[in-house]
């Protein structure tokens, strides 16, 4: 019996001590918070091991010393007040003992006050955008793992899919506050070494913080299922000394000045068709192919094809406008702050001439910043107003505000309140749905379980029409459902609601008209 108890005591202390050195155990990280999280993890592990040793020790003892071959006779009793009190109080005390250190750690993790540096982290499919407050430094960070490794034609490195072109640079010994948000769907910024994992939700700001103690390179990734290329959204943080950080800031500001000068110089440059196509292909493969596919075919119902599409066949200025400013209500991002004028000109030229499009259009950097669109044979017959690439954050905001206002005014002017037939509503509704809704709820209305709800027989569909209209027009707070009241006309809203309530076997029979929608606030 003594040997058995001794063995159990050795097991009680040996398991947690050995676990601390196991490669699969939680790492201690390089911040004070990550150390607290690790200590909390080990405390809970000790408690769990102690409970396991006690429970299994009593079981083993009972099986050995109270077996039938030793003449044991089972006791005959029904209940014991003392035992019931004991097995209620003891677990309660254990839980309190676990809750106290856990609560202290959680409170510390959620306290971003008195930060020395604030950085806005914006997630986009599939990249991170970092903005340093009060420093006029911002940049996008994209996956840089070579395509050969992704395709399996080259040997993979230890940091496979955890490499970026521009890492986030942070100083050690300074408290850094993060403001997390998203441009499109829900992402999650996760760096295990910092014990920081916070969701980036569209339309919301979440806070987190860290204070790094050790110089080094730390890697993480998006920890939320944010789309088909979720695995290609890494995070790399370079922790440097405070002096090196200050020098890095100066270098970044100088690079911004040089980039602006280079952009202005590019306006006077005229590239050949071959040069634009070569550069355009590189840009396309780097920032566009993830959605529209390397062959331009897109993903039906989610990302439109660029092969012979209305965008390609339409005016060049409209094409430029979408690349520069994005398209509200869709997954199409604005690339004004991500690409230079030359890169935008090159990728537009490439898209209009690749995959058999062969439009002959050649777009130059000057066209992006105010010149007229041209073709190989001279000026294009495009009378639309050229799009200007904003040079500063204020200009971007002003241009975006003016564009949205113009769209709203045009939409109001073109509102049609005449009643449409069910067939007309369903036809228009399907077009609106595929453009604005299918990226989240899927072309078949099935949604993405856990992220975007299914629309097949859902409460929104089975419920009152007014409730459905309210959600589509004004969005739903606390979710990724945005308000479409400012993005679609009443006729389009009525059509897409009618479509959702009658497609995929819903067959509600409801036919919503523009006049039904027009009374709801936007």
TrEMBL record:
SUPFAM superfamilies, alphabetized: Cupredoxins (SSF49503), Cytochrome c (SSF46626), Cytochrome c oxidase subunit II-like, transmembrane region (SSF81464)
Family matches, as InterPro entries: CcO_II (IPR045187), CcO_II-like_C (IPR002429), Copper_CuA (IPR001505), Cupredoxin (IPR008972), Cyt_c-like_dom (IPR009056), Cyt_c-like_dom_sf (IPR036909), Cyt_c_oxidase_su2 (IPR014222), Cyt_c_oxidase_su2_TM_dom (IPR011759)
Cofactor note: Binds a copper A center.
Cofactor(s) required, per the database record: Cu cation
Residues in coiled coil: none
Annotated TM spans: 43-64, 85-103
EC code(s) of this entry: 7.1.1.9
The Cytochrome c domain, residue ranges: 275-355, 424-504
Catalytic activities: 4 Fe(II)-[cytochrome c] + O2 + 8 H(+)(in) = 4 Fe(III)-[cytochrome c] + 2 H2O + 4 H(+)(out)
Keyword Membrane: yes
Cited Pfam families: COX2, COX2_TM, Cytochrome_CBB3
The keyword Disulfide bond belongs to this UniProt entry's keyword annotation: no
Residues in Cytochrome oxidase subunit II copper A binding domain copies: 114-251
Gene3D superfamilies in the record: 1.10.287.90, Cupredoxins - blue copper proteins (2.60.40.420), Cytochrome c-like domain (1.10.760.10)
Superkingdom assignment: Bacteria
Localization terms from the record: Cell membrane; Membrane
Span of domain Cytochrome oxidase subunit II transmembrane region profile: 18-113
Membrane topology, record value: Multi-pass membrane protein
Function of the molecule: Subunits I and II form the functional core of the enzyme complex. Electrons originating in cytochrome c are transferred via heme a and Cu(A) to the binuclear center formed by heme a3 and Cu(B).
Family label: Belongs to the cytochrome c oxidase subunit 2 family.
Name the record gives this protein: Cytochrome c oxidase subunit 2
Provenance organism: Shewanella electrodiphila
Name of the gene this protein is made from: coxB
């Amino acid at each position: 019996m003594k040997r058995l108890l001794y063995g159990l005591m050795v097991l009680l202390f040996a398991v947690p001590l050995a676990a601390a050195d196991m490669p699969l155990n939680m790492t201690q990280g390089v911040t004070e918070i990550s150390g607290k999280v690790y200590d909390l993890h080990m405390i809970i592990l000790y408690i769990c091991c102690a409970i396991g040793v006690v429970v299994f020790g009593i079981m083993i003892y009972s099986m050995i010393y109270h077996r039938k071959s030793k003449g044991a006779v089972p006791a005959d009793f029904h209940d014991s007040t003392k035992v019931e009190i004991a097995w209620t109080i003891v677990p309660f005390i254990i839980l309190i003992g676990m809750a106290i250190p856990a609560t202290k750690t959680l409170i510390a993790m959620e306290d971003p006050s008195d930060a020395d540096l604030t950085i806005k982290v914006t997630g986009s499919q599939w990249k991170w955008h970092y903005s340093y407050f009060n420093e006029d430094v911002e940049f996008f960070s994209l996956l840089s793992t070579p395509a050969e490794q992704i395709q399996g034609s080259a040997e993979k490195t230890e940091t496979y899919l955890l490499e970026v072109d521009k890492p986030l640079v942070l100083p050690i010994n300074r408290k850094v506050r993060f403001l997390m948000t998203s441009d499109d769907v829900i992402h999650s910024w996760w760096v295990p070494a910092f014990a920081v994992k916070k969701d980036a939700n569209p339309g919301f700001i979440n806070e987190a913080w860290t204070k790094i103690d050790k110089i080094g390179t730390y890697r993480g990734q998006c920890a939320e299922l944010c789309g088909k290329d979720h695995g290609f959204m890494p995070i790399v943080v370079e922790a440097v000394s405070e002096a090196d950080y200050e020098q890095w800031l100066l270098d970044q500001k100088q690079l911004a000045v040089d980039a602006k000068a280079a952009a202005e110089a590019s306006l006077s440059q005229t590239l050949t068709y071959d040069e634009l196509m070569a550069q355009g292909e590189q840009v396309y493969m780097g920032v566009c192919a993830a959605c529209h596919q390397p062959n331009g075919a897109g993903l039906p119902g989610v990302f439109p094809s660029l092969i012979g599409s209305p965008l390609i066949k339409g005016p060049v200025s409209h094409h430029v406008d979408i690349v520069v400013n994005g398209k509200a209500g869709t997954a199409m991002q604005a690339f004004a702050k991500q690409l230079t004028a030359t890169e935008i000109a090159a990728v537009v030229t490439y898209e209009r001439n690749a995959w058999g499009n062969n439009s002959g259009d050649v777009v130059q950097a000057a066209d992006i910043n105010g010149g007229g669109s041209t073709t190989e044979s001279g000026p294009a017959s495009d009378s639309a107003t050229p799009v200007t690439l904003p040079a500063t954050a204020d200009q971007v905001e002003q241009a975006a505000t003016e564009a949205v206002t113009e769209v709203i005014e045009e939409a109001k002017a073109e509102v049609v309140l005449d009643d449409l037939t069910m067939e007309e509503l369903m036809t228009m509704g399907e077009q609106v749905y595929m453009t604005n809704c299918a990226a989240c709820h899927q072309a078949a209305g099935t949604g993405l379980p856990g992220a975007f709800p299914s629309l097949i027989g859902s409460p929104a569909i089975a419920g009152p029409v007014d409730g459905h209209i309210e959600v589509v027009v004004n969005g739903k707070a606390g979710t990724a459902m945005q308000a479409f009241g400012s993005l679609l006309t009443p006729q389009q809203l009525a059509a897409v609601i009618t479509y959702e309530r009658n497609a995929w076997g819903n067959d509600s029979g409801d036919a919503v008209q523009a006049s039904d929608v027009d009374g709801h606030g936007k």
